[in-house]
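I am writing to request your help with a piece of structural work I have in hand. I set the record out below, with my sincere thanks for your time.
___
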Amino acid sequence: MQPIQINVQVTIGVSQELNALLLPMVRNLQAAPAVAAEPAKKPVTVEPQPAVENKPAEDPAPVEAAPAEPAAEAPEKEYTEVDVRAAMDAARKRIEGENYKEKPDSEGYKKWHRVLTVWFKNAAAMFGAEKPSALPDSESRYKFIRCCEAVFVNDAGELDSDCPF
């Protein structure tokens, strides 16, 4: 018996539609460091507010000055794989149900578990890794976590995301 030989030629191209879809994402990734610093300011500014409330006559000035201080603290937070896993768990609880781990036969688990797994892998790929646990640095983990916080089920019953990046 003679071996069978098959020659295959594959041509990969980018259509205008795909280019139009990917170009805004690439631009957002390039502009992301400026955007990434802003959300970190919000949780930190909550703490200084009680001290500002003690001086009602000076409210406007300290509120404007407060975000400048947390901006210096924001880069100090090192996002780890543990933070990534916690964000994925929170997204699963929100979409699949609070008890998705204990009840893998539940309707939410059956409908969304695989879909979310694929979504997590695709989101990690946007930030340079084949899976979330392999994200290369703290900044990419932070962006992934923000996207996990933004994923939801839309009115059409499909997985959607308002990812800020």
User: Anything to note?
Assistant: The mean pLDDT is 74. The helical segments are 16-46, 49-53, 60-65, 68-73, 81-96, 107-126, 138-150.
